[in-house]
Amino acid sequence: YEIELSTSAISIITNKVNQAAQEWQNRPLDPVYLIVWIDGIVFKVRDNGKIINKTVYLCVGLKQNGLKEVLGMWVGKSESSAFWMGVLTDLKARGVQNILITCTDNLNGFTDTIRTVFPQSSTQIWVVHQIRNSCKYVVYKDKKEFTADMKNIYNAPNKEVAATELDNLEKKWGGKYPYAILSWRNNWDDLTVFFQFPLEIRKIIYTTNLIENLNGKIRKYTKSKLSFPSDDAVKKTVYL
């Protein structure tokens, strides 16, 4: 384009993006969100001379008028309850008083942290992550049949029938795959929150479709970057 730009000019221009991203990240939020979905995307980032994996966590909230809004993004090296406490405290400081339902993949210490910050919130673990966790224990030739049997649990009309279907799953497969059943039992209350709600909205509560759609769009624009020089560079790209 026959235009010369110095490196300092480029820095000044891109720093304006950083400023806009910072303002967006700190903007006030609504007092109540009906559902908040939380998920992360992993990127390779340079940190102290080494390239390591870091996760950008995104929060998407469903507002009372039915519109969806990305509430913010946070870069974390590791998922810990202290990190999650920081994320949720940030949301609270920006005006969020209550979240009716939070949807997560049972990240380390996250469900307990939610109960500390938003005690009235119901926490739903995504069923698809539970299916993947259970399937880790199942050999390939049994996977199709095992997955079909698991489907009877989350497609049940209510929690009581779902519990019966879990018992059936245990009778059939418990001897062969005890750990696959145990992971359902251990997370049962958080896996079945969606049964409290009408049939029409259950699927958006227990599936990851919405946030994975957003992640897919971000991946499309970042896949050509093999690694990022800093946390700020990741934030800037994801924000844009």
Structure report:
- The chain is α/β, with parallel strands linked by helices and 240 residues long.
- It is built from eleven helices and five strands; from the N terminus they run H-E-E-E-H-E-H-E-H-H-H-H-H-H-H-H.
- A five-stranded mixed sheet has the order 3-2-1-4-5, sandwiched between helices.
- A hairpin with a 5-residue loop joins strand 2 and strand 3.
- Helix 5 runs antiparallel to helix 6 (159-173).
- It is globular, with a radius of gyration of 21 Å.
**Helix content bin:** 40-55%
Uncertain segments are none
Order of helices and strands: HEEEHEHEHHHHHHHH
Distance between the termini: 23 Å
- What fraction of the residues are assigned to beta strands by DSSP? 15-25%
The largest sheet is: 5 strands, mixed
Q: Please report the total strand number as a whole number.
A: 5
The assigned structural class equals alpha/beta
Biggest sheet, spatial arrangement of strands: 3-2-1-4-5
Please give the count of helices.
11
Please state the overall shape, judged from the principal axes of the Cα atoms.
globular
- Radius of gyration, rounded? 21 Å
Mean pLDDT: 88
Structure summary:
With 240 residues, the chain is α/β, with parallel strands linked by helices. It has helices at 7-25, 81-93, 110-117, 127-135, 140-154, 159-173, 178-186, 188-191, 199-206, 209-222, 231-239, and strands at residues 32-47, 50-62, 68-76, 98-104, 122-125.
